[in-house]
Amino acid sequence: MPLTQGFRLGVYEVADLIAVGGMGEVYRARDTRLGRDVALKILTETATDDPDRGARFDREARAVAALSHPNVVAIYSFGIENGIAYAVIEWLEGNTLRQELAAGPFPVRRVLDVGAQIALGLAAAHGKGITHRDVKPENVFITSDGVVKLLDFGLARIASDSAASRTSDGGNDFITGAGVLLGTIGYMSPEQVSGSAADHRSDVFSLGLVLFEMLTGHHAFKRDSVVETLNATLKEEPPPIASFTSGVPSSLERIVMRCLEKSPAERFQSARDLAFGLSQVAAPSGLFPAAETVRLHQMVDSPWAFVAAVILLIGLWLALALLPRYWSVARDGHEPLVTFTIAPPPGTALANVPARMLAISPSGDRLVFAVTKGGRRELWVRHLASIKAEPLPGTEDASEPFWSPDEQHIGFFSDSKLKRVGLNGASSTTLCNAPLEARGGAWSDEGQIIFADAYGGLSRVAATGGVATRMTIARTALAGQRDSWPQFLPDGRRFIFLREDGSGGEESATAYLGTLTGADPRALVSGVFNALFVAPDRILFTDAATINVQHVDLDRGQMIGEIEEGSAEVDRHLGHAALSVSRRGTLAYATAGSRDHRLVWVDRHGDEVGVVATADGWRDVALSPDGSHLAVQRIVADANDIWTIDLARGVPSRFTFSPDVDDDPVWSPDGQAIAFSSVRDGRPGIYRQQVSGAGSAELLFTTRASIHPTAWSPDGRFLLFEQTDPVSASDVWVLPLQGDHTPHSYLASRFSESDAHFSPDGQWVAYTSNESGRQEVYVRRFPDAADKVQISAGGGASPRWAPDGHELYFLSIERQLMAVQIRFTNPVRVSSPTPLFDTSIGLGDNRYVPSHDGTRFLLSVGLAESSAAQIVVVLNWASHLTSMRGAREPPPG
Fold it and tell me: How far apart are CA 18 and CA 6, in angstroms?
């Protein structure tokens, strides 16, 4: 009897009946604990009493549970309660492939996309020793956002040595028997029809049948009777695809026909190879792409056809004559060098903190990268054989992603934590506390993670989580030096990392070889942005202009042989280059794109009402007390300095001239000086410099931690600054500007407090904290930090005061500029936040400032997407290293 609405199985509450079949019933249900919809699959009483059906239900649950892949439906729970056998499965919105095919054949591009995703799901199953054995349109689901999910593993064969088999009670194929056909008529392989053993190549055959149907709208072997269909599957060749439809590339037809070979040995030997073959059709290469062939046929009736043909032949002859390197590669047995670009998903741009962030998986099959969407940063994953990327839930404001060795998880940094997220759609997990300014992480085969922060050196934690332990304290053991960007070598004991020498230049880093045993690291190569290991024995490193590769003797810890050079427009910024290389030698990097920002005035509705500066690297902004000048960080080639802009005349002037990175400008209340942060002589410091230009910059305070001034008190006596500490994350400190300048903490806890700003009367401080589990805006009294009041609701950051002190602005998580009315009565009265307009500026950055009359806001906004960065992927890159031109001898020493 069907379950009624409101019926509960544990934490799952039934909403409505979705489908009924011979095996059971499927309901839409609500997970009351996690607040999400799920599909609840119930085994009927009849099926429960049938051992074979019960075994199939158990088989399906265990098979799916063994998998973790975006193209396989996820199972959350499985069990028996009150005599009811059930499975809790991922809820999907969309249609089955069968439903989609009701409208007719698919366009070629969609066939390639859907087919590649099915193949990737099968490859994940095959990698776990699971053969599906029932691939058909009914068991393929296409979500509303185009993601393909494999369903129904009830007939799956599980290899005896697989993880899924080890969780079962024994036998690996207990529903197989003499005379039993496993599969669906019309989608079975010849070996399934004949009752022979069927392995993963049987799924390749079935997928070929699905591809054939998507292209033509017809079954390849379907006949009038079951016997005739089975006989055709065993003995007949499939009809040519061209007999049903035109416009299908010949390369795609060859792929489908290879899938449909009668002998398993003649088919694609893996679903992953099939996925790659489909991706190559999606991005055709060669002298004559399929799309161009049609145009050549259309030229026959043209009077210029003969001339065009002659030109074409001449062009072909020249190509053959001028490509000896290609033929050399072919003779040497190298796979061809294939380069293609990946644009950010629509409506997004590659994130830039401080450089573009991406990581290719160890196998080179998948890519994770960070994008900004609607002002929010998140991680996306794309399989190189697919034409579509997918967002990773639970990675909001993530930075510096890195892969687990088995490619089932991704590590990243967010909210002052090191986290990991699985690719099965599960929520992210916190592993340990981590600094705000993370500088890379690496995950070993032995389950260890090492990670770095900007100033504290390297730390180590188990991949399952725990308390991180320090490996190096570079800033105390070796004054002025900082360790970052680690990468494990294949042995899991040694790793490469960068050590900056504190000179402040962008190429001040040296690549070192370190070990988990704590032995002294060995310097490999200096003057680099970053360094990556390329199997089996090379180091890839970048300087300001080139990508360089050189052999390394890991036993002796030194570079050997010549350096090979290659040029590429890799994004480089603040000591790091955005590139990644897989263990199999696939290279991926991000292009620089545009770093420029416009400085514009907008009104309280977000409408642009004036332009201050355009396209010139403007970043953090601060308005002078009289509103006549702007202090702003400007990032241009080889310089990161503070500039001032005369707003009346629109004239910019350089304010600092240090070779180091100067940032975080803060005006004195009288407008006569500007405080800023800088790392000089290898130590972070807060400096003060007169606006008139008289004298040099005065060092107010220095420490070994990362420090950033945020506000100057209206009476001129105090400076608020953030201090980033590896243990307590970010705290707010007070620097007295009278006496001995000894700072003291204002807000210090195990949470992250940042971006503090004085109210106009100097009696309150607005700041951001993640004490609630996410960033929110608060105010407290100054100087005693009493009477805390939460301002934002639902997330917020970057608070700024209105001139009268009765209005406070902040950015919501969705990057809306919000306004709150405040009355400092007893108790403090705060209105509900009111949205003013949407912005595209980053949380936590000094990218906006209100005017002194409260009617306008100055924003630092990025340029249009036309100049956006892209990702470049180079397949078979490592195998062509010896072909790189311009090799040179290594520098002396």
Answer: 15
Contacts of 830 (CB under 8 A, 6+ apart): 789, 791, 820, 821, 822, 823
Answer for the pair 789, 808: CB distance below 8 angstroms, yes or no.
no
Measuring CA to CA, how many Å separate 128 from each of 65, 159, 837?
11, 8, 50
**What whole-number distance in Å separates Cα of residue 813 and Cα of residue 411?**
22
Given a cut of 50, whether residue 180 has pLDDT beyond it is no
DSSP state letters, 461-513: EETT----EES--HHHHTTT-EEEEEEE-TTSSEEEEEEE-SS--TT-EEEEE
Where do you find CATH 1.10.510.10 in the chain?
A: 99-285
**What 3-state DSSP class applies to 207?**
helix
Q: Bridge partners of 353? A: none
Secondary structure (DSSP) of 130-164: EE----SGGGEEEETTS-EEE---TT-EE-TTSHH
Give the helix/strand (H/E) hosting 51.
Answer: helix 51-65
Do 484 and 500 meet the contact criterion of CB atoms below 8 Å apart? yes
Q: Which CATH number fits domain 338-462+473-594+869-883: 3.40.50.80, 1.10.1040.10, 2.130.10.10, 3.40.50.10490?
A: 2.130.10.10
User: What does the mean pLDDT of the chain come to?
Assistant: 80
Tokens of 890: 């290594």
Dump pLDDT digits (tens) for 318-334. 443 444 443 344 444 55
> Residue 112 and residue 555: Cα distance in Å, rounded?
46
Please answer whether residues 821 and 801 qualify as being in contact, where contact means their C-beta atoms are separated by less than 8 angstroms: no
Fold of 597-862: Neuraminidase (2.120.10)
237 Cβ partners below 8 Å, 6+ apart?
Answer: none
Q: Is 1.10.510.10 the CATH classification of the domain at 99-285?
A: yes
Look up tokens 């004298």; give the residue: 695
Beta-carbon count within 10 A of 625 CB: 15
- 131-179 pLDDT tens trace: 888 899 999 999 887 889 998 876 667 665 444 444 443 333 333 333 3
Q: For 90-101, write each residue's pLDDT tens digit.
A: 888 899 999 999
Torsion of CA 542, 442, 401, 404, to 10 degrees: 130
Q: Quick count: other Cβ atoms within 10 Å of Cβ 669?
A: 15
Active site residues: 134
Across 181-194, average pLDDT:
83
Q: What is the 3-state secondary structure (H, E, C) of 293-358?
A: HHHHHHCCCCCCHHHHHHHHHHHHHHHHHCCHHHHHHHHHCCCCCEEEEECCCCCEEECCCCCCCE
446-482 pLDDT, tens digit each: 899 999 876 557 899 999 999 888 886 544 444 456 7
- For the cut 90, the answer to whether the pLDDT of residue 436 exceeds it is no
Buried b (16+ CB within 10 A) or exposed e, 178-214: eeeebbbbbbbbbbbbeeeebbbbbbbbbbbbbbbbb
